[in-house]
Amino acid sequence: MSIPKRFIYSFFLLLFCIRCNEAIKTPKQNYLLNKLSEKATGVDFKNTLIEDAAHSIINYIYFYNGGGVSAGDINNDGLVDLYFVSNQGENKLYLNKGNLQFEDISEKANIDSASDWNTGVTMVDINNDGFLDIYVCAVSGLLDFEGKNELFINNGDATFTESAREYGLDFSGYATQAYFFDFDKDNDLDVYIVNHATHTVTSLGKAALRNNRVPLVGDVLLENNKGKFTDISEKAQIYGGVNGYGLSASIADFNNDGWDDIYVCNDFHEDDYYYINNQDGTFREELKASFSTLSRFSMGSDVADINGDGFQDLITLDMLPNDERVLKETEGDDAMYNMQEKLRKQGYKDQYSRNMLQINEKGGYFYETALLNNVADTDWSWAPLFADFDNDGHQDLFISNGINRRPNGLDFKNYISNTFKQKNEAESLKWLYESINKMPSGKVSNEIYRGNSNQFTKKTGDWIEEKRSLSNGAIYVDLDLDGDLDIVTNNLNEFAGVYENTTNGKKNAISLRFSYKEGNQNGMGTKAILYSKGKSQFKQLFSSRGFISSVAPQIHFGLDTVSKVDSIAIIWPDNTIQKISKLPLNKTVLVRYDPNNPSYIYSENKNTIFKASKSISFKHKEDGYYDFNNEKLIPYQVSKLGPAVAVGDVDGNGFEDVYLGNGSGNAAELYLNNGKSFQKSLQKQFEKDADYEDNDAVFFDADNDGDLDLYVATGIHKTRNRRLEVDRLYLNQKGSFIKSSNQTLLNPLNTSCVAAYDYDSDGDVDLFIGNLSNPKSFGANVNSAILVNDGTGNFTADFDFRLNAKVTDASWVDINGDNQKDLLVATEWGTPQVFINKKGKLSLLEIPKNLTGLWQSITAFDIDKDGDNDILLGNWGLNTKFKASVENPLRLYYGDFDANNKKETVLTYSKKGKEYPVNSKNELAAQMNRISTQFVTHKNYALKTVNEVLTQDAVNKATKFTVNTLASGYLENNNGTFSVFKQFPKELQAAPITNFNQLHFKNKDALIVSGNSLRVNTYHGGYTSLKGVLLNSISEYQFVSDFGIRPFNEQVKSVKIVEMKNEKRLLVVSNNDSLQSYSFKK
Questions:
Q1: pLDDT tens across 275-288, in order?
Q2: Within its chain, how far is the Cα of 53 from the centroid?
Q3: Contact 31, 464 (CB under 8 A)
Q4: What CA–CA distances, in Å, run from 170 to 216, 246, 720?
Q5: At what angle do helices 410-420 and 425-434 cross, to 10 degrees?
Q6: φ, ψ (nearest 5 deg) of residue 950
Q7: 8-state DSSP, 258
Q8: Selection from 287, 1010, 1008, 1054 nearest residue 610 by Cα
Q9: Whose CB among 415, 756, 841, 910 lies 3.0–4.6 Å from 888's, allowing a Cys bridge?
């Protein structure tokens, strides 16, 4: 068989490869989930792969994706049976005999596939005869694979007859898995089939390719018409393009409107799909409007209400490793900048190679929290399963892991690229196949996490043995009817895993089966809400879950030690409600549909206190300067701090006007407020100064002439023209702003903030100028200053004030009640600075030690409602790839590490007391040539500490900055002392907080908390999960979307409140985005 060389190139150009873990904990004998031997259970299935030059990962990228497993009671004896898929060999059906004993009935059951390559499996009663049938997916038309999807109809006597053609389910193509659900509410089960594409070097076409349906590859939606399935994909507006790399889907009523929606995980560069059911037989795709952070190589997925708010959340899996050696020996997101820029231009969303835990916010959108929950980096992961494994009433998480060979480790990639080019096409495929043994093993342990409806905690090694394996398909199932959920995995080249749950009645539970209408007898899509002791649990029934697998058609609720269930509300697929009570515990209860049920009314969140308006038509345009091209090792960009925003009554008409700065190359704009609307004011000086980067601004009367002048803090110029990197003072001359000269100190630094206040009480307004960095060299601290006004608009520095730091934010606030405003300063790679003002003399206030952080914002507000102002501190947050603590800090070293008379920054993190560079070998080598000769291979570099990489002497000579905490929080005011730092709740840790903007709302003082950061490189991706919070106190806060404000998906610079004649306007100003405006009552 001839394989085109473009297929061969693709296999090493676009995949990751990871070495296996080196150390695994010594196993203990008693786990929550104990693995049983194949001899003990009789489940002796192995998914054994046979590789040759024509059949391997070289020419089929999904060769190691494994097979699925399905659970269901095929003979209606009350015991759940198991079906295993073998990619190349014989599929197996095991009959549950009780007591965790199984009998292989595959041969007499007649369930083996006639297809060459099988993938996923699901059990479903397709003909509504009361017996579960088996639907198996197959790949055909690829390589020499022949076959089709097969439907094994249950004959009712533990034998089956293959009948896919009779039902129209004999799909031929690159099928991954099937998902049965009644999408059109006509009381029969339709099916969505996820299919994958092939991947070559020509695959990176425009995103619009998804609109052009092609055979074999594109996902399909088949409608059930009286037992015959027909393809309605185009009519239903389902994508089916050549770029559809479908590996899983999750079905759920995500927006709680009573109609089931679809989330599809796509591998490689294609975006995932989020289909909202239009309730008319069609879907609309709303990924961009609903998600801001996506997995790059999306594989398995699952849904569940993990936080108990009544909306189903989502997890998608990727392949980010946690092991330090593997991280350094593989190509990760750090190398994806050029690819990401190319894909962005072709219409794809930014994607990042890590697991994503998407929290559903009232059905309107999702915010991502995997890093916050420490579930982002589980390695090469396949099947996620949300379930209550310890029966405590909270959803836990199991993840199956492992790949037989990782095809794209950095050393392997170099080996291939150096040798492959010497081969001709005829010998290249054979040579590549003979090279696959050089790929490291990808065996890694499965992972399990305990949930508490607030946070996940890793329990691998405690709940389940930490042992390397190759597990693909996985399910949860109560095999022994003891009221707890066991786990079954389909393993590659190993016996299947059967894990017995040993909860065994220590905690209570209840399971539900359903008897619904003919056409959907098992009630697929049914929802159940369990009420007990003032709490509720919500679940929806769908069988196909995780990855290429399906669970039994029943719902399981853990109850902890609760001895009584108050009631369970059943919401049937026809959106009627039925309530049941007086339920036996630790049993499986069959709930029968009552045709007299009343309709269930879904509530809608339509709080529109803030109404969108078109006050100001302004879009900030960021320039193309990319910091990492000049300083490759800095931790994040410092050139994208804008836009500057200032509010003040410029024209003296009693209404505040708005100044909006812009990026280098685009002019700032001034909008005048007449009380009813805003009108753009032509400012010739702003047009002349369009090449300046506007970071921050403030209106104040500089020259004491009774009108407001303007100071603008300047950032980094798009081509580094130093003449255009100085701050500016504009004097108001009858409404026109004219740039002054020689009235302020020349400030060539990267200015982050400016704050105005008459701190010396001499009758004129002075300025604090906060500088973040030297545009030429990030690592050095820089001086900030207080500029003292002489009363005529001429400024000199207060030499008694000294601050050498990386300043990000500042404000003048009276925190001690002496009617003098004090100076609060936030700094990165340092501590917050609080200067108490005593008649113009500033003294530093003592605050807790170990508060070094990446502080982004600071203000004062009575957050605990005890009558005094606390100090609020916005940090980087805890939903980040950076981790920092006193024991394992984040550090930045600044020094000349390669003796070329130019200093570099090197960032490090600590693991188990050892300090490692954050950057890969290739990243360090791009800045310091000696790294390539010092560490020839990536294996040589992996596990090297910073002292080994930079040398102990160089580290000792370097300037060292340390971060001990990344949590945002507040300094509690206790009678004027601020000795206690308290963290904010998790909703305020989702991304960097850059703004605390005060407003008076519902007769209370409140804050709008905002931020996010898109200044990071591809190692991080984007941090955009802080969707905006309206906060009244530490215990009273809601998302801004609850009040009609669009969630904040961008890097928010500022939120301002402006008074109009009859209402107020809320302005949301973001970097590189259009201004958003909302009106609300006074």
A1: 999 999 999 999 99
A2: 38
A3: yes
A4: 12, 19, 62
A5: 150
A6: -100, -10
A7: S
A8: 1008
A9: 910
- Whole-number Cα distances in Å, 655 to 658, 677, 756, 880, 946: 10, 10, 20, 41, 57
Task: Report in angstroms the alpha-carbon separations of 237 from 36, 210, 262, 267.
Answer: 46, 11, 12, 21
Q: What angle do CA 879, 881, 886 make, to 5 degrees?
A: 85
Q: Are strands 588-592 and 508-515 parallel, antiparallel or unpaired?
A: parallel
Cβ burial 874-897 (10 Å sphere, 16+ → b, else e)? bbbbbbbbbbbeeeebbbbbbbeb
Q: Beta strands 81-84 and 92-98: pairing type?
A: antiparallel
For 495-527, the pLDDT digits (tens) are 999 999 999 989 999 999 999 999 999 999 999
Distance in angstroms between the alpha carbons of the first and the last residue of the chain: 75
Q: How far apart are CA 479 and CA 487, in angstroms?
A: 9
Give 1001's pLDDT tier (boundaries 50, 70, 90).
confident
The residue with tokens 């693991």 is 911
Q: Measured between alpha carbons, how far is 19 from 66 in angstroms, rounded to an integer? A: 19
Task: Say how far apart CA 141 and CA 216 lie, in whole Å.
Answer: 7
- Separation CA 365–CA 1070 (nearest Å): 19
Residue that the structure tokens 């480790």 belong to: 409
Residue type at position 887: E
Torsion angle of C-alpha atoms 131, 132, 135, 136, degrees rounded to 10: -120
Determine if residue 34 is left, alpha or beta; phi over 0 gives left, psi from -120 to 50 gives alpha, anything else beta.
Answer: beta
CB-based burial, 811-820: b 16+ in 10 Å, e otherwise: bbbebbeeeb
- Please compute the mean of the pLDDT values over residues 386-392 and round it to a whole number: 98
User: Residue 1076 has which token pair?
Assistant: 């958003």
* Phi, then psi, of 910 in degrees rounded to 5: -115, 140
Rounded Cα–Cα distance for residues 1079 and 612 (Å): 6
Rounded to an integer, the average pLDDT of 289-296 is 93
Taking the C-alpha atoms of residue 966 and residue 877, their distance in angstroms, rounded to an integer, is 5
CA 590 to chain centre: 38
Order across the sheet with 497-501: list the strands: 33-36, 497-501, 486-491, 471-477
**How many Å apart are CA 813 and CA 815, to the nearest integer?**
6
Paired with 883 in beta bridges are none
Cβ atoms of residues 955 and 818 within 8 Å: no
Burial of 614 (0-12, 13-18, 19+ CB in 10 A): exposed
Q: 6 in helix, strand or coil?
A: helix
Sheet holding 246-252, edge to edge: 246-252, 261-266, 273-277, 283-285
Q: Centre a 10 Å sphere on the Cβ of residue 233 and count the other Cβ atoms it contains.
A: 18
66: left (phi over 0), alpha (psi -120 to 50) or beta: left
What is the rounded distance in angstroms from the CA atom of residue 997 to the CA atom of residue 999?
7
Q: Whole-prediction pTM value?
A: 0.95
**Per-residue pLDDT, 21:** 37
How many CB atoms neighbour CB 432 within 10 A?
24
Contact 367, 1022 (CB under 8 A): no
Residue 503 backbone class (left: φ over 0; alpha: ψ -120 to 50; beta: rest): alpha
**Residue 407 near residue 415 (C-beta atoms within 8 A):** no
Q: In the structure, what pLDDT confidence band is assigned to residue 3 with cuts at 50, 70 and 90?
A: very low
The per-residue pLDDT for range 564-603, each reduced to its tens digit, is 999 999 999 999 999 999 999 999 999 999 999 999 999 8
Residue 778 CA to residue 764 CA, distance in Å, equals 34
DSSP labels, 952-970: HHHHHHSEEEEE-----EE
Structure tokens at 38: 């194949």
Q: Which residue is associated with the tokens 């509720």?
A: 536
- Which helix (H) or strand (E) segment holds residue 166: the answer is helix 164-167
Burial of 434: CB neighbours in 10 Å, binned 0-12, 13-18, 19+: exposed
Give the tokens for residue 178. 């099937």
